[in-house]
Design brief:
2 domains, 4-stranded antiparallel β-sheet, 12 strands, 13% strand, elongated
Length: 342
Amino acid sequence: MTTQAQWRAISAMTGRGDRAAAEAGVRLAYRRAGLAEPERIVWAASPLEAVRKLWAVEPEGRPILRGTGGSVREALRSRPWAAERERLHAALGPKGFSDHWQATGADLWELTRTIVDRISAGVVAAVARDRKQETRVRLLLLDAVLGQHDAAWLSAFDTTPGNPLDGLAAVAREAGWWWPYEKVAILTDRPTELHRDEAGRLDRADGPALAYADGFVLHSWRGMAVAGEFLAGLRTLTPERIRREENAELRRIMLEYYGYDRYLSESGARPLHRDETGVLWRIELPDDEDVVMVEVINSTPEPDGTSRTYWLRVPPETRTAREGVAWTFGLSAEVYEPLRQT
């Protein structure tokens, strides 16, 4: 039996899985749905390559994949999924089922659905050239079973051998997204790289946050989609370049990467207020809210005798250093009276 922790690990696995085991899972899933096994199983390196195989044509105008038959996703995934959910709901009751979902897949789905959305958006952007093509690509994406990215839902159901979802679970343990059709199943390998921050968001400053073997990549900074060229330019940032950036969200990323303290010291900023708690600084940004920070010094020396400086970001309306430090403790400036600053 696959545990919740194991399903969480499966959702984030990278590198090629056991293709033979995945193919066996596909055939089992077809049989569980009462369908004939697919005549062919075709592998693709990424969801992008799978969509291109399904849609694109060779220079001679012939389809790359012919004779797939209609999609069987409804019979293979949606119906058994709904039946298992209905069974659990009847056994546990509304509250019991809600509690069960919160204890199993809820948190994991919050992590994986953002990745699913980003992959879908990346495929659409790479393939579609107009609104009509975008609609066509999105319809193809609706035919997909999410493999490892279905881990949150599979963790909530019984996927032990002999149960209706055991074939789907077997594929999810070894592969990424896949497309089931009457005569052909198209499977994709898992990504080769996955980089996330402490909150689970796609995040990497020096390369793709998500990458597949065929070169399909997604760049991201703390969950925000960005261009690879933008990230590459972060290494040569200057205060002037940051000030010239018109996009407020990109400017915010630049400041986070460059460092607020470094930007303050190199841009000639002047302190607004100073008292015994620290120094209040403000960065005025066009078409965006001001960045206001309090510079505080740790009163407890480091082992080498130095005192460490911290920068605390506070609300833009902050007017004094004391008010800013107090805000970080959830207090007003009048109430805040530290016995010892740390």
